[in-house]
Write a structure and sequence with these properties.
- The complex is a heterotrimer, with two copies of chain A (226 residues) and one copy of chain B (306 residues).
- Chain A is α+β, with helices and mostly antiparallel strands.
- Helix content of chain A is 43%, strand content 11%.
- Chain A contains eleven helices and five strands; from the N terminus they run ααααββααβααββααα.
- Chain B has ten helices and three strands; from the N terminus they run H-H-H-H-H-H-H-H-E-H-H-E-E.
- In chain B, strands 1-3-2 form a three-stranded antiparallel β-sheet.
- In chain B, helix 2 (49-60) crosses helix 5.
- The chains are: A alpha+beta (226), B mainly alpha (306).
- Chains B and C meet through helix 2, helix 4, helix 5 and helix 6 of B and helix 3, strand 1, strand 2, helix 7 and helix 8 of C.
- Chain B: Keywords: Chromosome partition.
């Protein structure tokens, strides 16, 4: 499959949003740009940081944030923008807590989604492991799911990778408790469930150019060749 | 549920036709909405399979699929296959050869004097052409859809979903997690997550053609030659059906073996003429040794000689 | 974050938030209640689910969601509310992607190759479909590409073909999310990209009399065309 490796060489010149990020950011309306950024952050963002990312004076950022917060209050939105512990973040408005609690207690939260279960499984068998590695194994970004697992107390941070500084994660005692296990050594071996022993690493598969039934890891390959 | 209008550009398609009054397939194509110069050259090295190459060649000549000047395109198609040299794997080469063979057939037909469609070969060629074009049109449709997908995916990649989750005071209310799949199910899930590869399937039907034993066929040949003394190869295979190429080959290989054992003499008066086979092995009961050189199977299966 | 966790204790005078949740929820304004819930969902929420949580008719919920989405657009907010893959969810508005990308480092999706896109297109329109059928359309083996799509979570297995036992594939909800589609019925129609049936037939017939694949410059072509 000759075209696989060339995937983004042609597009990069025109389409990549990274290239002229600087000037693009400077041209954005400040208030909606702040709204967009704050919509995806889960840690309170400081005015300094926001000002730096959006390339505006801190004063302008601070004013815009307060205006936004006022707008939401005036419009009676179900969310609010608050300055907590030195940073800004969206929160649900307390008056609507019963709605959120209804959602939390709805019953479906006792179970994990398939994505969460799979991510948990990868962490359990690969710990300590970084988020990027889990994402690489699963082939999809796992940030949101990992956050859920942290929130549910099933995984926790376990230091950082020395080379990259990436945060590592491991499963918790609560995980063992919910699984009915006394220790990690009671997790079943993977071997019996593996088709082939040497093909576990998801990343290595990524690079295989084209599926080939006669690939070296297929059974009987050596015989088939002569 | 109306589809969103944005992000669905009609992919450009070179559609200049040599016959301007033909109003079909390319009618939906817009005049190039964006500069597309040089794209052909860049992408030709990157074609995805034979249809892709064919489509690119056709568009290079600014022809519509339904109005292709096949000779030119066929020549270039062949040139590309040659240019690729030995780098292709068997699968890939085969796929290209199928298309190339069809194109060559069509080109050859073009070179012959034009006549009424009367014999079955002509009809078969027409069918091959229509089939090829139908597949090509279908492929082109999906290719255009793929362009739309690209546009949509690019557009969507500029939207980031909110995945912040619960605030801590709400999270405290969460019920206990229930993991009901059990340790074994969990291990299975881990394997699935880490090894998400479809089971490899090797199709072996084509290998399972009935095996023909050269030794057995040698026995047949020897028996006949002993009876008649001499026979042409044509006679030696005359009872075999047209589909039984394997047996024909096996009998021929048997002849070579017998020749090596000096049990037969071979004579051919002219090229492509009848091959005369004469028995020189005497009348004795002892039969010449025919090795199982050609019969060796991958598995040590006993060949029983009758 | 102790400051945060105390915020709603004042409102819950009754203590247990569960006790009179039902009546509390029923008394809330619908639109801000929806906004509050949608702030905390981490996957698209269906109208049914929201209607159940908020104890309103689905029709009312559906209308309110659309009104909210319109408000955000009219007000030029940096976020938008969209119905994707059958559920509603907040997204950042595309125009502000440069700002968001300053924050989200690894949010970039790897681009799909041309081969993967074509395969995805065939699966999307022909599902459930076997690999061999996809290969037939594209003229090349698609096994390696299909594996990539499986890994990325864009397609999934969907049983086996009864006659052949070949594994069938279909697109996933994640595919819809990535494409920003509400459902498969929102896929662009395939028909306009295929010549009309009678156009093919006409072409086919018109080729017959002259039996000439290179029609345009052949004698007799003009007659055949009329």
């Amino acid at each position: 499959m000759s075209a696989v490796s060339t995937q983004n060489s042609a597009e990069d010149s025109s389409g990549s949003p990274v290239g002229d990020l600087g000037s693009a950011v400077a041209g954005l309306d400040l208030k909606p740009a702040l709204e967009a950024v704050l919509m995806v952050v889960d840690e309170p963002a400081t005015e300094e940081h926001l000002a730096k990312i959006l390339q505006r004076p801190r004063r302008a950022v601070a004013d815009a944030l307060r205006e936004l917060a006022d707008e939401y209050t005036v419009q009676g939105r179900g969310f609010e923008l608050r300055l907590v512990a030195g940073g800004w973040r969206y929160y649900t408005r307390p008056a609507y807590a019963p709605a959120v609690e209804g959602f939390v207690l709805d019953g479906q939260h006792a179970r994990l989604t398939q994505a969460a279960l799979e991510t948990l499984a990868v962490v359990a068998y690969r710990q300590p492991v970084s988020r990027s590695r889990v994402s690489a194994v699963r082939g999809v970004n796992c940030d949101g799911v990992m956050r859920t697992l942290l929130q549910r107390g099933l995984v926790e941070e376990a230091g950082a990778e020395p080379e990259t500084g990436a945060i590592l994660y491991r499963t918790t005692n609560y995980f063992l408790e919910r699984m009915g296990l006394r220790g990690l050594d009671e997790l079943p071996e993977l071997a019996p469930f593996l088709p082939e022993a040497d093909a576990i690493e998801g990343e290595t598969l990524e690079g295989v150019p084209s599926f080939d039934p006669d690939a070296p890891d297929a059974p009987g390959y050596e015989d088939a060749d002569d | 549920m109306e589809p969103e209008p944005e992000g669905v550009p009609v992919p450009e398609e070179p559609h200049v036709q040599e016959e301007p009054h033909v109003p079909e397939a390319a009618a939906e194509a817009q005049p190039d909405p964006e500069p597309d110069d040089g794209r052909f050259k860049v992408r030709l090295a990157n074609f995805e399979g034979p249809f892709d190459l064919l489509l690119q060649l056709i568009s290079k000549h600014k022809l519509d699929v339904t109005e292709v000047a096949l000779s030119k395109v066929t020549d270039e198609f062949m040139a590309h296959i040659r240019a690729m040299g030995p780098d292709w794997d068997l699968d890939q080469t085969t796929e290209f050869l199928v298309v190339a063979a069809t194109l060559l057939d069509l080109k050859a037909a073009r070179l012959l004097p034009t006549a009424e469609v009367e014999d079955e070969a002509d009809l078969a060629l027409l069918e091959a052409r229509d089939l090829l074009f139908a597949r090509l049109l279908q492929y082109r449709a999906y290719k255009q859809i793929a362009d739309i997908f690209t546009a949509r995916l690019d557009e969507e990649a500029r939207r980031y979903p909110r995945t912040v989750g619960l605030e801590p005071h709400h999270a405290e209310l969460l019920p206990e997690v229930v993991i009901s799949i059990g340790p074994e199910g969990f291990a299975r899930l881990a394997v699935k997550a880490m090894l998400p590869k479809p089971k490899p399937q090797v199709y072996v039907d084509h290998i399972h053609a009935p095996l023909v034993s050269v030794r057995e066929q040698a026995g047949v040949v020897v028996a006949r030659l002993k009876e008649h003394g001499e026979a042409s190869f044509r006679v030696l295979i005359e009872e075999l059906g047209p589909d039984d190429t394997l047996t024909v080959v096996a009998r021929f290989l048997a002849l070579l073996e017998l020749y090596r054992e000096k049990a037969v003499a071979l004579e051919q008066e002219e090229a492509l003429g009848d091959l005369m086979v004469r028995w020189t092995g005497g009348d004795g009961e002892a039969e010449p040794t025919v090795t199982d050189e050609f019969d060796r199977a991958p598995e040590p299966e006993e060949e029983k000689k009758p």
